[in-house]
Inverse folding.
């Protein structure tokens, strides 16, 4: 394939494992709670939570050069096939390529039931070392990206015996826990005859979201490879024997496959640990960002997070659609950033979870791990670095009570110009949607110092002016002790309704960004210093879900990162929750490619007066800003980063704050 483009959120897993690692070992929830914002091959992220299931199409062949017509993306509703029907044809191995093949045999007996009580059966992989990469002593098809051949020691884990099927993914969609996968000619989602085929046509975020919903996570690349080949450095899961139609679903002659096959239909291709479909059928997402080779790769089996500016995640295993057997080996790896019809996934789980002390925003008392948080303080003071910090002194003097008498404190932002977009002089993680860096002059306005909290939104609900937000996994509403956490899991319409109720409005995108960065073009609200947990609530890549949110496994109370305060005294502009703004989504600030000539060439450039960029009629999606607590990619936690979601969507991620014109 060689195409283009964590463990965050998990719900309890088996014996308490972590998702990307896992959350609180208990019972898994029916709500996915993953915002699902992923970059496409052009650096543009797409929301994984469209209510109607519609998705952009971005299909390519395995060499990244061709395009297959999959038809327009179509909404999928309950009237479609339930996706749960097993196929009934049989396959001889020389496939002939019919897409209606139906197999009744999933190969060897499944290892054991998923310990999370959701998702497919799983097989265990014991802890210990193995050789990772291309073994030149048995493989003469090594690629540079598969070297050097090196030892990695992987803790014990469990992995799905088969790739996730279309029917399994559809169960998540019907529960409300997952957004619909893309549909089309080569997509399996929503087709009853493809229920036992691997789910495809979905991006990395959707794959990760499903794993979260079943209380698991995506496997790391090292875990995937050890599961695929064992410890003897073999070329294929089944050994070093030749690749043929009895071992893998593929289009290589004489198999001539013309589409996916039901999972588990090639039992002869089982790995030493009894995993099937590790080679062929569909590429499989793993947790790791793409790196051109293994130089500097972790040796402990952990996920290798994306390096700065990397837009692609890693896929493994090859696909049915390749005419080159080099792409069907246990060491084959490739970058990708699309919701491709050639890519599926399977989930993993760890045997235990780590207790992470939680003293964020607290002084004294239980830290959640049998210890005690240090010191004592009185609001508005908080514990910070073992000492007491006066929050008021940290945020300056330009903030005060809301002039409307409703809602939280607000900060003044003076009129005048600022530079909006990604500043390449201080930021090497710029993406197409963040550009160009351009001047915008914004009138005076006020903006909430903090995101709207659960308790504040409940006041609106109790008045009858606001509707109930989504509840469930990773949603704060209805969770005891989170009254002062930012409200999340709300749609754009709900955010707008609240702001109107308190006599305010949603901020424009330009207002939000000026409030977040000031006028000096900085990368973060606090300046250009590195992103860390002293400044923002986020999830540094490669940690368990229980360690996301800077060790909380959730959002933090609003205002708990005073060192991350912006030049205008505004807090939590980066991390904790994504935030809705007024504007429709646009793929860049220069959508007509006229060099950002405001008003020129059809006038399709972002406004320069600080107003909301609103289409007529309104676009189907709205812009969100700021990143969140389970975001593992540093590029999503910059003041210039931007992405989108459907206005009716309420994934665990978007919250909001309100603004108003200056008085």
């Amino acid at each position: 394939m060689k195409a283009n483009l964590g463990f965050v959120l998990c719900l309890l897993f088996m014996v308490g494992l972590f998702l990307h690692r896992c959350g609180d070992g208990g019972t898994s929830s029916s709500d996915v709670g993953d915002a699902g914002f992923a970059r496409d091959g052009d650096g543009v992220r797409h929301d994984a939570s469209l209510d109607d299931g519609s998705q952009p199409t971005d299909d390519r062949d395995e060499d990244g050069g061709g395009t297959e017509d999959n038809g327009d993306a179509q909404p999928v509703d309950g009237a479609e096939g339930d996706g749960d029907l097993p196929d009934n044809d049989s396959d001889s191995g020389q496939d002939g390529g019919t897409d209606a093949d139906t197999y009744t045999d999933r190969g060897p007996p499944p290892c054991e039931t998923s310990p999370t009580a959701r998702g497919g059966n799983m097989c265990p992989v014991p802890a210990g070392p193995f050789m990772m990469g291309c073994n030149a002593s048995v493989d003469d098809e090594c690629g540079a990206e598969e070297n050097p051949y090196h030892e990695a020691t992987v803790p014990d884990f469990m992995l799905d015996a088969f790739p996730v099927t279309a029917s399994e993914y559809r169960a998540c969609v019907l529960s409300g826990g997952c957004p619909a996968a893309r549909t089309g000619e080569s997509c399996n989602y929503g087709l009853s005859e493809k229920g036992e085929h691997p789910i495809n046509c979905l991006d990395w975020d959707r794959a990760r979201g499903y794993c979260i919903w079943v209380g698991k996570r995506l496997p790391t690349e090292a875990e995937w490879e050890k599961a695929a080949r064992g410890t003897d450095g073999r070329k294929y899961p089944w050994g070093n024997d030749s690749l043929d139609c009895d071992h893998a679903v593929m289009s290589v002659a004489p198999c001539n496959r013309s589409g996916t096959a039901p999972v588990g239909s090639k039992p002869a291709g089982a790995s030493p640990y009894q995993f099937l479909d590790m080679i062929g059928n569909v590429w499989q997402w793993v947790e790791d960002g793409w790196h051109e080779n293994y130089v500097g790769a972790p040796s402990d089996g952990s996920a290798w997070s994306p390096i700065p500016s990397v837009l692609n995640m890693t896929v493994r295993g090859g696909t049915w659609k390749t005419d080159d057997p080099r792409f069907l080996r246990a060491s084959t790896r490739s970058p990708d950033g699309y919701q491709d019809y050639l890519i599926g996934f399977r989930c993993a789980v760890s045997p235990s979870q780590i207790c992470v002390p939680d003293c964020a925003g607290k002084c004294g008392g239980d830290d959640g791990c049998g210890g005690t948080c240090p010191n004592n303080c009185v609001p508005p003071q908080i514990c910070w670095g073992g000492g007491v910090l006066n929050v008021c002194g940290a945020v300056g003097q330009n903030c005060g009570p809301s002039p409307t008498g409703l809602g939280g404190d607000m900060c003044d932002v003076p009129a005048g110009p600022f530079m909006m977009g990604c500043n390449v002089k201080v930021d090497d993680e710029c993406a197409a949607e963040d550009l160009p860096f351009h001047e915008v002059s914004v009138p005076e306005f006020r903006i909430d110092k903090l995101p709207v909290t659960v308790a504040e939104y409940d006041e609106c609900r109790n008045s009858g002016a606001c509707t109930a937000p989504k509840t469930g996994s990773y949603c704060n509403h209805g969770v005891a002790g989170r009254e002062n956490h930012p409200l999340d899991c709300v749609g754009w319409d709900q955010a707008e309704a609240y702001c109107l109720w308190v006599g305010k409005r949603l901020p424009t995108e330009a207002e939000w960004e000026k409030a977040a960065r000031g006028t000096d073009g900085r990368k973060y609200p606090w300046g250009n210093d590195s992103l860390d947990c002293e400044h923002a609530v986020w999830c540094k890549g490669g940690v368990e879900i229980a360690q996301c949110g800077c060790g909380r496994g959730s959002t933090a109370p609003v205002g708990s990162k005073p060192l991350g305060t912006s030049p205008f005294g505004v807090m939590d502009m980066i991390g904790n929750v994504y935030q809705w703004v007024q504007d429709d989504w646009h793929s860049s600030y220069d959508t007509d490619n006229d060099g950002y000539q405001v008003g020129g060439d059809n006038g399709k450039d972002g406004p320069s007066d600080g107003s909301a960029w609103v289409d007529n009629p309104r676009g189907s999606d709205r812009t969100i800003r700021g990143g969140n607590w389970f975001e593992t990619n540093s590029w999503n936690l910059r003041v210039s980063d931007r992405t989108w979601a459907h206005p009716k969507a309420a994934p665990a991620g978007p919250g909001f704050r309100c603004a108003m014109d200056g008085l």
In short: Helices lie at 166-175, 204-213, 221-229, 391-395, 454-463, 492-501, 509-517, 548-551.
